[in-house]
Amino acid sequence: MTQLTSAQQTWIRRFHPAPGAAVRLVCFAHAGGSASFFFPVSARMAPATDVFALQYPGRQDRRAEPNIDSISRLADAAFGALEGLLDRPTAFFGHSMGAVLAYEVALRFEAAGGAPLLRLYASGRRAPSRYREEALHQQGEQSIIAELRELDGTGGGLLDDPDALAMIMPAIRNDYRAIETYRHTPGQALSCPVTAVIGDRDPRVSAAEARAWADHTTGPFDLRVFPGGHFYLVDQSARLIQLIRDDLTAAAASKA
């Protein structure tokens, strides 16, 4: 069983350790999200897949730590936490902001000479090269709340609770700053397969914007569209997990 150092344990949540698993899945949460979002994924994929969920600073049990408001610096820190842990065939799954972060961490692993990922799943996010002028992080709290309600990723009751909002708003605003100021470095691309996954009613990413992820890998690319909005993966979790399970099983078998 892979033993995590204390520094790695700060970043990595391993809800259902699977020491005998042939493959590993590393999950990267959305803006304002936390590792616990992926607890159901971990439960359903164990013991065949060893799931790591990244816990960013500034939330839940890391709430006392400063947030990191740069995708580049967050990717550097996440890479440092994961370095040495891709000791078995590994895939990354990132949702929304997490898709871009997963991509940047994967670039760092390939640049360091690591084996390419089995696959990168880029969920609910347009390709890194597809920019929109956005500055929600500079707007008032009510604008951010309206955005969260539209995306339907945070329980309505939570958004109506002033005490809960006071706890989560710093991380949310920080993460919006990180993703809205992010700029892709032209000429960079992965060599691993990339699967873009979106909901067919997502107001923040079109099929064309998701399809542009093909430009960010020299490997195979495919686009999967599920029913739902930005957080399609909540209602479509069974189908999504089956897709990932089938892909990873096939990929691991091909490397055996």
Most strands sheet: 7 strands, mixed
Helix/strand class: alpha/beta
Q: Write down the domain tally.
A: 1
Strand residue content: 5-15%
Mean pLDDT: 91
The H-level CATH homologous superfamily, spelled out, is Alpha/Beta hydrolase fold, catalytic domain
User: Low-confidence spans: pLDDT under 50, at least 5 residues?
Assistant: none
Radius of gyration: 17 Å
**Outline, from the CA principal axes?**
globular
H and E order: HEEHEHEHEHHHEHEHH
Strand order of the largest sheet: 1-3-2-4-5-6-7
| CATH topology assignment | Rossmann fold
InterPro entries: AB_hydrolase_fold, TEII, TesA-like, Thioesterase
Protein name: Alpha/beta fold hydrolase
Pfam families: Thioesterase
Keywords: Hydrolase
Search tags:
single chain; 256 residues; alpha/beta; Rossmann fold; seven-stranded mixed sheet
Describe the structure in your own words.
By secondary structure, this protein is an alpha/beta fold. The chain has one domain: Alpha/Beta hydrolase fold, catalytic domain (Rossmann fold, 3-Layer(aba) Sandwich). 40% of the residues lie in helices and 14% in strands. It is built from 10 helices and 7 strands. It has a 7-stranded mixed β-sheet with strand order 1-3-2-4-5-6-7, with helices on both faces. It is globular, with a radius of gyration of 17 Å. The mean pLDDT is 91. Belongs to the thioesterase family. This is Alpha/beta fold hydrolase.
